[in-house]
Amino acid sequence: MFESIYDQLNRWGKDDTFFVRIIERIKPDGIADLGCGTGRLTLHLAGKGYHVTGLDPDEASIRIAKQKDTKNAVLWEIGTSEKLGAERFDVVMMTSNVAQVFVTDAEWTATLHNIFQSLRPGGYLLFDTRNPLARAWERWTKEHSLSEVVDPATKANIRTWHETTSVHLPLVTYDTFYENLDTHEVRSEDDTLIFRERETLRQDLLAAGFQQVNIYGDWEFQQAGLHAKSFIFAAKK
């Protein structure tokens, strides 16, 4: 991934605002942002006075996040849920559909277990995921996903887009293309995401030990309907 252009492609949105609103209601002390990427939301929460740890397995993303953290407000760690530890946090969050990268049941179960163990009693896991009924992958085409940005690292003009290549539900594979408009070089990478159903996820959370599971829909504080585009889970230990 072109980590240096991630912030240009993923600017602050209603999803970020919604997670901030949930956290303001919970009033946590310690927060872990699992899959924090380059730290957009992580740094915002630290700026509001929360004690935040940002974890991501991608070393380049953490490096960029640290460069933006001029006040050393966040504890940054390279790693996965295995690094969360025991009863350290009041909230663990996975935003930007990070929950969909755990494509095997074993990965997902292990991640939920690690998160549950890392939460203090009464703590919350917060995450969002796309509703498979909304069929988001049908809009992962060049026509609907094309963007152009300037890479701040190289000053190159970059055109990027997605193309779905395989749909075998619950798994969807797609390519992301990066075209350097100055040299006409094109690079690509492929990713696979899992589209779990709402009830499947609820049962997974209960099996992991969570006692209360709220499911919001489309960035509103109302229970998710069957045809919501996004599900936002708030699971309490």
TrEMBL record:
One of its GO terms (molecular function) is transferase activity. Keywords: Transferase. It comes from the Bacteria. Residues 31-123 form the Methyltransferase domain. Pfam families: Methyltransf_25. This is Methyltransferase domain-containing protein. The lineage of its organism: Bacteria, Bacillati, Bacillota, Bacilli, Bacillales.
